[in-house]
Design goal:
mainly alpha
Length: 369
């Protein structure tokens, strides 16, 4: 005979205990009193629930009306100073962007004048002055610059002006497939301008591919670094226009080209994105300061001398110093600056000069040494 099963926590005893507690709870709950016109408590409970529902709906409606008329006013009051501040910040940013764009345009134009020995027709094409171009004959439009052999189409692309480029093409000033003396394409000249839309137009219309290089191995990215546009450098790198760490065939890196172009912003970008260090030398032993002096930009020369680009006394393999490259920049102010700095370094190197500099420093700061 099997022994009787013990009542555990999961057996019938548990279920009966739960049912007993439920009956006791139901007995303790108050029943809804009948309302007039109703005889039982069930109907009274239904009426109570309907009253509660009506009260809830009325409360929700009142809250919606309150929020509909109040919250917009509060939000507008909170956001009004923020909008004003954002507007002022946007205006200041736009003004800074316009000033930076104008300074970059002037810097590129000065570089173009010092390097190309351009005629008035080429200057008009670089500036995008179509009305001035109309005064020249087709034969004058077909001429090239004395140095580097840039056509008017190249000059318009370097200036970043599509309308002037189209006019020169229509008037026989050149073709999209023309190359300069060093093998520079129209697309590479457009990269110098920093105009990304013009770069894309030149690539689509036979101005040269992103992967094309010059005779010396200068890629589209090198031209963008020379122009000093960080956006153009980033765009050309994304389009496989050359790696940041790849120099040309003469060992000139992107940092050297940025220093040659005179843009400190582009130089800092290239240094921070594997475009070459400040202490790099090319295959001819030229430092970044050599290329900065070749640009003729005094601010760039001073920046490179202070941030490890080489001193004005460093010599290349042929024995030429940065002063010789400053003389080739066609900027007398840069030559005077380099000569003055060299004289100051020579005076400081002498014993009496060093003592004089120390005396002036101690007299200037008011501290006894």
């Amino acid at each position: 005979m099997m022994p009787p099963k013990k009542k555990g926590k999961t057996g019938g005893g548990c279920r009966s205990a739960c049912a007993k507690r439920a009956r006791q709870t139901d007995d303790k709950l108050p029943s809804c009193a009948p309302i007039e016109g109703h005889s039982d408590g069930a109907t009274g409970a239904a009426s109570c629930s309907s009253l509660i529902t009506r009260h809830t709906e009325a409360s929700n409606m009142a809250w919606s009306v309150l929020t509909h008329w109040t919250l917009p006013f509060l939000r507008a009051k909170e956001l009004r100073p923020v909008r004003h501040a954002c507007t002022k910040w946007q205006l200041a940013a736009d003004e800074d962007g316009q000033e930076r764009e104008e300074s970059d345009r002037a810097r590129r134009f000065n570089w173009f004048l010092r390097r190309s020995n351009a005629q008035p027709v080429h200057i008009a094409a670089f500036r995008g002055d179509v009305s001035a171009l109309k005064e020249f004959s087709p034969g004058e439009l077909a001429t090239m610059t004395a140095e580097r052999k840039f056509s008017t189409v190249h000059c318009a692309a370097m200036g970043g002006h599509l309308d002037a480029l189209l006019y020169c093409l229509a008037q026989g000033g050149g073709r999209m497939s023309d190359l300069s003396y060093s093998g520079s394409s129209v697309t590479q000249c457009a990269a110098f301008s920093g105009n990304i839309a013009l770069i894309q137009y030149c690539v689509k219309n036979g101005g040269g591919r992103f992967t094309d290089g010059t005779i010396a191995g200068r890629t589209v990215t090198h031209w963008a670094a020379l122009g000093g546009s960080v956006e153009a450098i980033r765009f050309c790198r994304q389009k496989k226009g050359g790696n940041m760490s790849t120099p040309n065939r003469r060992g000139v890196s992107l940092t050297h080209f940025a220093a040659w172009g005179g843009s400190i912003t582009a130089l800092q970008y290239c240094c921070s994105h594997n475009g070459g260090h400040m202490w790099f030398r090319d295959q001819l032993g030229r430092t970044v300061t050599h290329w900065a002096c070749y640009s003729g930009d005094i601010d760039m020369i001073e920046y490179c001398c202070r941030h490890g680009g080489g001193t004005l006394r460093n010599k290349a393999l042929n024995g030429e110093g940065p002063l010789a490259y400053a003389k080739r920049s066609n900027n007398p102010e840069a030559v005077e600056y380099c000569e003055r700095k060299l004289r100051e370094e020579e005076d400081a190197a002498r014993p009496e000069g060093a003592a004089q500099v120390a005396a002036e420093t101690s007299a200037g700061d008011g501290v006894a040494h």
